[in-house]
Amino acid sequence: MPPGSRRHTASGRSPQGVAARPSLGVVGGMSEQRAWEVAEVLGASVQPSCDHLDEARVTAPAADGPPGCEDCLRIGTRWVHLRECLVCGHLGCCDSSPGQHAYAHAHAQSGHDLARSAEPGEDWAWCYADEVFLRPAG
């Protein structure tokens, strides 16, 4: 698959560049400025956009969440990397994992297009619908 494809980028490669349109996040019903923006594609003549940034609600990883992919834990399979839905907090496995549960969740649940990396030290997100990298605003 080409470098810009969903399978390649959603598997864990980090974005580069600066972004454009921020989205507000919500924690415990309180809005905060922890926003996401579309990451610039360096050297591209037309920059990507995302129509789903307003879906983001979950802004802090759940401290009491499951220790791994919710679906893999339920059926007894393994995962490679974890992705957290920015709408409901569902923790699923990446596209490099056999179950690809984050992708399945995004496509099974209407309006759940955004997921962030739940890997330590990574601070990026992905829009499954628009197939674009997101980075923290600011």
From TrEMBL:
Residue spans of biased composition, Basic residues class: 1-10
InterPro entries given in the database record: Znf_RING/FYVE/PHD, Znf_UBP
What PROSITE patterns does the entry give? ZF_UBP (PS50271)
Q: Per the record, which residues fall in region Disordered?
A: 1-23
Domain UBP-type residue range list: 48-138
Tree of life domain? Bacteria
Q: What protein name does the entry list? A: UBP-type domain-containing protein
Organism equals: Kitasatospora kazusensis
